[in-house]
Amino acid sequence: MINARNLSKVFHDKKRGAIRAVDDVSFTCEPGRIYGLLGANGAGKTTTLRLLATLLRPTAGTATVAGFDVLAEPAKVRAHVGFLGASTALYARLTAREMIAYFGRLNGLSDAAVRARTQLLADQLGMHEFLDRRCDKFSTGMKQKTSIARTLVHDPAVMIFDEPTLGLDVMTARAIVKFVRECRDRGKTVIYSTHVMSEVEKLCDKVGIIHDGKLCAEGTPAELRTRYGEQDLEEVFVKAVGTEEAA
Ligand SMILES: Nc1ncnc2c1ncn2[C@@H]1O[C@H](COP(=O)(O)OP(=O)(O)OP(=O)(O)O)[C@@H](O)[C@H]1O
């Protein structure tokens, strides 16, 4: 479960001054559900996700993630969250298997648990063919699958994916979308940020549209279509953001 309450984050930049990257954002995502965070470049998606994963501290507001407060119990939040960000990196000299094992041990898993999780994640993500190859030889898709596996090795209750299919070919993107759906079906709480409307369509039970740091519209895809009188989610997005700008 994720419960964000009036989350705000202000950055202070020498050139740009104060940047209100996230502005009073509140939403809830329940177990067995995927919450889609939709927004243009610079809207505040990544900052919101980093606040939830405790990689940043909110300027105001707070959130509970898997039952723990991000301000009061950040270590417990981290133990129950898997965060796949754009900068999730791999060690070039390690193989995918070693990479997963390394993060498994960091998360306190036994050798037997690491072996079992590696087997399962490699099955689910289709990684067996390259599990024992070094990460520096990987394609973008292999890297992303390995990053997902190392992020989720401790089987967290809450999974945060920040644009996980960016730059991937159609087949790899589909495999990842399928994997995320299966995580939801196993009862995980999933938050998923993307620019790709077809993924929102396929995946998200609820969508939050973020613009200039503010959550300007929220609902199921069907509710948003009705509210904005548009079938195409891209049109819904344009209208929601346009209404916010006009206001
Ligand atoms: N560490 C930082 N210092 C200063 N400003 C920042 C920092 N991180 C983000 N920002 C600014 O905060 C705003 C929101 O950025 P954020 O990365 O959250 O947007 P986003 O919706 O994830 O965009 P994208 O789709 O391009 O990844 C932007 O104006 C960005 O330049």
TrEMBL record:
GO terms for molecular function: ATP binding; ATP hydrolysis activity. The keyword Iron does not apply. This is ATP-binding cassette domain-containing protein. Residues 2-237 form the ABC transporter domain. SUPFAM superfamilies: P-loop containing nucleoside triphosphate hydrolases (SSF52540). Pfam families: ABC_tran (PF00005). Belongs to the ABC transporter superfamily. SMART domains: AAA. Keywords: ATP-binding, Nodulation, Nucleotide-binding, Transport.
